[in-house]
Amino acid sequence: MAIGAILFIIWIIIVRRWFIMDPVPKKKPALKIYYNKQAAESFVNRLEQLGYFRYADAADIDLLKKDMVKNYAPDAELTGIWDDEKEAPKEYRYYSCDGEDVYEDGGILALLNNLKPTFDKLNFKCDVTDYFADWDSNKKWLNQGLTMNGTPYIIFKNFPRAGWAEAPKRIAEILNAELAKQNIKEKIYLISIDNDGRLIFLTEELYQYIYSVYQNPYWKPLELNEWATVMEVEPMIL
């Protein structure tokens, strides 16, 4: 009887432990850090006032705005929607710019081709000739360059290492110089680095506004020299 009583008490303790005192907790919903819908709507409305969606198809603007409101996160990065059919972002501004891909053989030309939908929206002339990329297997360095709209540019000169950061910065510098020559107010700004790299076309006014709202320097658009400082990219000798 004593053993039976002890076993019964143990059984009662187990039942109370698992089914009464410690029920399985409900899963808590994930929280959106820093999310504020009113702030998100205000941000997106201001972007629209400043012309952020001016190149988007009219039918896509509401979708883009809703997506940006939903994913608003000043501690992270801007968002966009990729159009698989057009092979371009729906707002024609925000592109992936994988530094490894851009640096690899043919990567510069591939990037320029990827940006063509936005070039067309901007009426930007981008005629590339005399492209070369010469790797010296003895000296272990790269010489690379091209001519854009009649102006010759050096991309790499006797460059001895992988240029995952340097290649996006250099082609952005070249494109910004050509955009300015054609009196186009949009410029390229860089975001993040290496395989996480992005680029975005912005006017000065749009850039200043986004810069004031988004706080993470590794994930917000940066002017090229500031980007190089933040990402610790050494200047090249050309």
Overview of the structural elements:
Strands 3-8-7 form a three-stranded antiparallel sheet. The protein has a three-stranded antiparallel sheet with strand order 4-5-6, covered by helices on one side. The protein is built from nine helices and eight strands. The N and C termini lie far apart (94 Å). The chain is 40% helix and 18% strand. With 238 residues, it is an alpha+beta fold.
C-alpha geometry: globular
User: Can you write the helix and strand succession as a string?
Assistant: HHHEEEHHHEEEHEEHH
The major β-sheet equals:
3 strands, antiparallel
Beta-strand fraction estimate: 15-25%
The structure class reads alpha+beta
Q: Helical stretch count?
A: 9
Radius of gyration: 26 Å
Proportion of residues in helical segments: 40-55%
How is this structure best summarized?
This protein has 238 residues and is α+β, with helices and mostly antiparallel strands. The chain has helices at 2-21, 37-49, 61-70, 99-103, 107-114, 116-122, 166-181, 204-213, 224-230, and strands at residues 82-83, 88-89, 94-96, 128-136, 141-148, 151-159, 187-191, 198-202.
Set out the fold topology.
Layout: H1 2-21, H2 37-49, H3 61-70, E1 82-83, E2 88-89, E3 94-96, H4 99-103, H5 107-114, H6 116-122, E4 128-136, E5 141-148, E6 151-159, H7 166-181, E7 187-191, E8 198-202, H8 204-213, H9 224-230
Antiparallel strand pairs: 1-2, 3-8, 4-5, 5-6, 7-8
